[in-house]
Amino acid sequence: MENISNKKIGIVGLGISGFAAALLAKKKKADVYISEAGKGKKVQDYAAILRKKGIKVEIGGHSEAFFQGVDSIITSPGVKNKAMPLVWAKKNNIPIVSEIEFASWFCPLPIIAITGSNGKTTVTTLIGKVLKDSGKRVIVCGNIGNPFSAEVSRFKQADVVVLEVSSFQLEYIQSFRPKVSIILNVTQNHLDHHNSMSEYFKAKAQIIKNQKKTDFTILNSGDSRVRKIGKQTKAKVLFFGKKKKNSECVVNFFGQSWLQGQIIVSEFKKKKYKFNSAELKIKGTHNLENVMVVILAAKTQGVKNKSITDSLRQFDGLEHRCERIKNIRGVNFINDSKSTTVDATRKALSMFSRKDVILICGGRDKGSNFIPIRQLVGKKVFRVVLIGEAADKIKKAWGNIVPMQVAPDFTSAVKSAYEQARDGDSVLLSPMCASFDMFKSFEHRGDVFRKEVLKIDRKLKK
Q1: Domain ranges, residue 364
Q2: 4 in helix, strand or coil?
Q3: Coil, strand or helix at 343
Q4: Per residue in 356-412, pLDDT tens?
Q5: Across the chain, what does the average pLDDT equal?
Q6: Do 77 and 223 reside in the same domain of the chain?
Q7: Residue that terminates a domain, selected from 79, 94, 109
Q8: How far apart are CA 250 and CA 291, in angstroms?
Q9: How far is CA 195 from CA 68, 188, 366, in A?
Q10: For 235-283, what is each residue's pLDDT tens digit?
């Protein structure tokens, strides 16, 4: 545990993570200074609360004078590396840590940390459920919702932390050490923040940085980049993938999970566990891999086979992840708002067997290349409705593979998609982009989609 009492701590970013970090630092008797470039209502509300607690707050921009004399800086997820406070800190050799690094200083519990371009939230949620169902006291937090820093007061009443972590959060770790590190996949994402795929991958790989021989690293054997980490980690390696793999010459190979027909087979400590994937409520081949990971993670925590089976059978899936909203006169509406990458939308489209999808996509581009999904769109989608800032870029990438239109607003997009749908078709919201050009978050975008769908249903019933 780090002693920050009476130290001057600077925090960059006054979102939910920065707010939680500021409160924790103050509780640990630090002299806290927090700076935020924006000045929206939420920021002002947070600022008012923090000022009442004696925390110094700067909003509407960053000034060098505000950070003079700080001992270290905590950066919130998503703060750009070119942000003035980070550039200044690096120039002056002031330590920079992420919010998860900061919170980990006060965490005596084993941590199961999950990262990857796609599937993090499903896997994090399901691991939490399986462990809770088995009788363990679990804290699920991080990039999934409540910040790690906000949960410190609950550590004494828990057995384990299940933590969703992003590349932003892993970028500035020092001593952060999960008992179980999980890397699901690494596909193109956040290139508006990281300068290249290699930098993005390097940030993800930070998750194994401090692991020891007594820890576990769970890796995707089907992702060539991720598989190589098995030779770099000091922890025991567990692979998952559709096919059974040998040890890949990994000395510390410990077990794996793979698919035999529709049966998921997991091998841990030379003992096998089998689960029939037909019993799952969640669909899609990507979810089979998610379940493989969950089983391996549960095994590292000693969860019994029957308990794992019962939990997997009960899981209904998540909001905003291929969530079926309603069928209106033969047309299915599916909310996949959490798909903010090209690969996530590829997985969503792979669930469909026919060319019967009207795809609503677009939003704020994260530096993505939309061309690789073009042929799949041609096979599964018969019309595309584009929204947001990335509409023209997507249209250019896909050319004339399918008919496309740019909607003037989100309401028009949903209405137009329904009007063009045929009996048996599906209207799929799977944006491939961030939501911040039109919405507060991907959850907000999904909620608005649901409201628009129900609005159509109400009008038709009048």
Answers
A1: 323-461
A2: coil
A3: helix
A4: 999 999 999 988 899 999 999 999 999 999 999 999 999 999 999 999 999 999 999
A5: 92
A6: no
A7: 94
A8: 23
A9: 29, 12, 11
A10: 999 999 988 876 556 778 999 999 999 999 999 998 999 999 999 988 7
**Cα–Cα dist 286/291, whole Å:** 9
> How confident is residue 454, by pLDDT bands cut at 50, 70 and 90?
very high
pLDDT tens by residue, 117-145: 778 889 999 999 999 999 999 999 998 87
| Chain centroid, CA 306 distance in Å | 29
Both structure tokens of 151: 């949960």
Last residue of a domain, one of 262, 285, 314: 314
Q: Using CA atoms, how far apart are residues 101 and 111, in angstroms rounded to an integer?
A: 12
Strands (E), 329-454: 331-335, 357-362, 381-387, 404-406, 426-429
pLDDT of residue 363: 96
Adjacent-strand bridge partners of 238: 218, 255
| Tokens encoding 23 | 């409160």
Cα torsion 178, 184, 186, 189: sign: negative
Q: Is the Cβ–Cβ distance between 124 and 114 less than 8 Å?
A: yes
- The dihedral through the CA atoms of 155, 157, 159, 163 has a sign that is negative
**Token pair 């081949």 is at which residue?**
285
246 and 348 within one domain: no
The sheet with strand 31-36 has its strands ordered as: 56-59, 31-36, 8-12, 72-75, 96-98
